[in-house]
Amino acid sequence: MSINWQKKWLPLLIPLALLLAWLALALMPHMAGGVPLGDYAHADVLIQAEELKNLADKHDPHLRLIDFRHKAKYYLGHIPGAIQMWRPETEDRRQSVPGLPAPTPQIEKLLGRLGLGSHDTVIIYSDQCDHTRLWWVLAHYGFPLNQMRLLDGGFEAWKAKGYPTQLTSPQIKPTTFQFPTQPQKDYLLANLAEVKEALASSDKTIVDVRNPRLFLGEVTREGAARPGRIPGAVGIFWIENRVTMGPNKGCWKSAAELKELYAAQGITPDKDIYIYGHTSLSASFTLVSLHLAGYPLEKLHVYGGGWIEWSRSKEPAETGPAR
User: Three-state SS across the chain?
Assistant: First the structure.
């Protein structure tokens, strides 16, 4: 009887199993979260590797790619046509606290040296969270948001598609770059006094984006004078904004996932949100994540001095589990 059953049903089960396997593969991107089902409030902040490849193939002279990684990584391979820029070039060298944005003339001179024009569309990528720092700095100084996009998933997403890379850098024709005359977005950068004021306000909240051991004060990093966190801060590690597995690994989580992540900690769009990390670097990634999720940009503030500045001040600090 068993043999007869197998002869009767086996020819039907094999095609069914293949169909189910195909459906599982087709649905995997949907199950993994992130793009292309991000449903972001500001989806134009991001660009996917496929879209970038199509744009790059058109050789638009006003499309500029910026590889925001260390020069050593750039020369080991980068997206064809990309120019190289790195964090120290965008930092204010006059300050004792690292990570603060360079003054306007320094950034304008840098962009001009790299051949950027005010009408160019800039695509920024890195391999960690560095690209969001450049987006934040340019946005702060008034660069049009509709002329900046971040490669979702970074350089790894480009390579995962099997797209070409190159070792040589493009020829650059320097320009005289000036930021548009539209007002700067000063609210994107907060100082210590503003963060201190936020501690006493019920409609303001502070987010610490460092890893849990730094948040708890179990360890500290170079530059900080002491371990701990700003009192009352909510700890959400910046990496939690990214998809951790599947075909969209390294991309931003969907808007619904991001909203759930922050709402669960009482971080809602009606509040002013002050974001800090060790410096401003990883905080900028969280700022972009909240912007994608629909939080008003004017209510998002990166504390430029970060934990380094706060730890060196006489302001109080907390350690251990959040109260």
Answer: CHHHHHHHHHHHHHHHHHHHHHHHHHHHHHHCCCCCCCCCCCHHHEECHHHHHHHHHCCCCCEEEEECCCHHHHCCCECCCCEECCHHHHECCCCCCCCCECCHHHHHHHHHHCCCCCCCEEEEECCCCHHHHHHHHHHHCCCCHHHEEEECCHHHHHHHCCCCCECCCCCCCCCCCCCCCCCCCHHHEECHHHHHHHCCCCCEEEEECCCHHHHHCCCCCCCCCCCCECCCCEECCHHHHECCCCCCCCCECCHHHHHHHHHCCCCCCCCEEEEECCCCHHHHHHHHHHHHCCCCHHHEEEECCHHHHHHHCCCCCECCCCC
**Of 6-15, 24-33, 174-183, 284-293, highest mean pLDDT:** 284-293
Domain boundary among 112, 144, 160: 160
Contact 141, 184 (CB under 8 A): yes
33 within domain boundaries: no
Range of the domain at 147: 43-160
Tokens 């670097």 belong to which residue?
Answer: 281
| φ, ψ dihedrals at 275, nearest 5° | -115, 130
User: pLDDT tens digits for 213-249?
Assistant: 999 999 999 999 999 999 999 999 999 999 999 889 9
Query: For residue 248, what is the domain's CATH number?
Result: 3.40.250.10
Look at residues 203, 198, 209 and name the one whose alpha carbon lies nearest to residue 296.
203
The pTM of the full predicted model, rounded to 2 decimals, is: 0.88
* pLDDT exceeds 50 at position 123: yes
Give the whole-number percent of the chain exceeding pLDDT 90. Answer: 83
